Amino acid sequence: MIPTEIPLLNSLINVDAAHISNFRQQGHVLIKNILQAPEVTYYREVIRDAVSRYNTETRAMQDRDTYSKAFLQIMNLWEIDEQVRQFTVAKRFSKIAADLLGVDHVRIYHDQALFKEAGGGFTPWHQDQYYWPLDTTQTVTMWMPLMDINVELGMLTFATGSHLDGFAENIPISDESETSLQKYIKQKKYPISRAETMQAGDATWHYGWTLHNAPGNSTANTTREVMTIIYYADGADVTQPQNKHQENDRQRWLGGLNPGQLANSNLNPLVY
Ligand SMILES: O=C(O)CCC(=O)C(=O)O
Fold first, then answer.
1. Residue with CA at minimum distance from ligand 1 atom 1
2. Distance, CA 157 to ligand 1 centroid (Å)?
3. Residue 272 lies in a domain
4. CATH number of the structural domain spanning residue 233
5. How many angstroms does the Cα of residue 217 sit away from the middle of ligand 1?
6. Residue 4: pLDDT over 90
7. 145 in a structural domain
8. Which of 115, 182, 206, 264 could lock 28 by a disulfide, CB 3.0 to 4.6 Å apart?
9. E strand or H helix at 182, and its extent?
10. Helix, strand, or coil here: 5?
11. 1 in a structural domain
12. Which pLDDT score, from 0 to 100, does residue 5 have?
């Protein structure tokens, strides 16, 4: 039963200078205790409930491709669920995004729940920004477990410093991206880094060009419950889509705005 009083998450957190410089140099950073226990208990319930209502994946694991084995992916819950909206537009999160990026204002690109089921597959190496027709590198994804997690549940893993080289390869998330980007990462000698454990309400933050992957969920019964929000600096323009995924994103997440227009559709609220 979800409590009726919504925690608004409007009280702010100061981001340490060390977190900011780690984020900018390494391309990712872990910030602990962003949510207090009652807040995460509340939003875990809300997001689990929304995932169970909106999930459409019913295939057995063995009948899915690599991408669909990696997680249940339920996107832009803020658009359709008022309680999730309070989470996604929360100032506590968007101020951290703006501080890490060093910008005055940020907008939402989209949110997504990423629930890696027990026995779920690995998340292949990829760059998020491969999918986004935006003319800025000032983009960041918040990845927040709603439960305590360890590596066995599928910890997000980063190629440190890879954001500094920008676009790597023109490959969507797939077996092919795993093989090809693994080779690229070895060639570039990026150190691989991940937390051993995270607590509910901690979050990692990574740039849109930071290469990342995650191991499969090797547990027998436990789903890894994670919520993510993608932010970008206000003032970014829409760019000419470079692949069919970017065209799809332009229509779905940028309100169909044309290349050269300010990325400010009503699907992209100014949250800070
Ligand atoms: O949750 C995962 O396994 C992958 C998450 C991811 O790629 C992202 O949030 O950008």
1. 114
2. 9
3. no
4. 2.60.120.620
5. 13
6. no
7. yes
8. 206
9. helix 175-188
10. coil
11. no
12. 76
60 secondary structure, DSSP code:
-
What is the rounded distance in angstroms from the CA atom of residue 107 to the CA atom of residue 234?
6
Q: Which atom of ligand 1 is nearest to the CA of 70?
A: 3
Task: Choose among 202, 233, 206, 213: nearest CA to 24.
Answer: 206
- Whole-prediction pTM: 0.97
Residue 152: per-residue pLDDT: 98
Proportion of the chain above pLDDT 70, given as a percent: 99
Residue 213: how many CB atoms within 10 A of its CB?
23
User: CA 90, CA 73: separation in Å to the nearest integer?
Assistant: 21
Pocket residues: Cβ below 6 A from ligand 1? 70-71, 114, 116, 123, 128, 141, 143, 154, 156, 212, 214, 226, 228
For ligand 1, pick from 228, 232, 245 the residue to mutate: most ligand atoms within 8 Å of CB: 228
Distance (angstroms) between ligand 1 centre and the Cα of 151 equals 14
Domain count, the chain: 1
Q: Output DSSP code: residue 167.
A: -
Centre of ligand 1 to C-alpha 258, Å, is 28
Residues in the chain: 272
Instruction: Examine residue 261 and state whether it is found in any structural domain, yes or no.
Output: no
- For ligand 1, atom 10, name the residue with the nearest CA: 128
Instruction: Give the chain's end-to-end CA distance (angstroms, integer).
Output: 31
On average, the pLDDT of the chain sits at 97
Q: Which domain holds residue 194?
A: 17-252
CA of 213 to the centre of ligand 1 (A): 7
Kindly tell me if the per-residue pLDDT of 2 is higher than 60. Answer: no
Determine the Cα–Cα distance for residues 98 and 101; give it in Å rounded to an integer. Answer: 5
- How does DSSP classify residue 15? P
